[in-house]
Amino acid sequence: MQLKVTTIGNSTGIVLPREVLGRLKLEKGDTVHLIETPNGYELTAYDPSFAEEMAAAEGVMRTYRNALKELAK
User: Which of 18, 19, 29, 46 has the highest count of CB atoms within 10 angstroms of its CB?
Assistant: First the structure.
């Protein structure tokens, strides 16, 4: 599916077709995640619990950075 980049007010964006919004279970005003993957970018519906879990995991990784670096060898 091709989408065109367009001007939206003073910003630039894309308009998602109604079918895409339906499959992602999104409505106007919802938040989405854009994730870079090895195959390109992935757009997903925002999941607050996942965001909280990732924030906790990032805190653990910061705290135990040196230990994790050693374990990765």
Answer: 46
Please count the helices (runs of H) and the strands (runs of E) in the chain.
Answer: 3, 4
* φ, ψ for residue 47, nearest 5 deg: -125, 105
Helical spans, DSSP H, in the chain: 18-23, 48-63, 65-71
pLDDT digits (tens, 9 = 90+) for 26-65: 998 888 888 888 999 988 887 777 888 989 999 999 999 9
CA distance 71 to 39: 28
Torsion over CA of 40, 43, 49 and 50, rounded to 10 degrees? -10
Rounded distance, CA 53 to CA 63, Å?
15
Decide: helix, strand or coil at residue 57.
helix
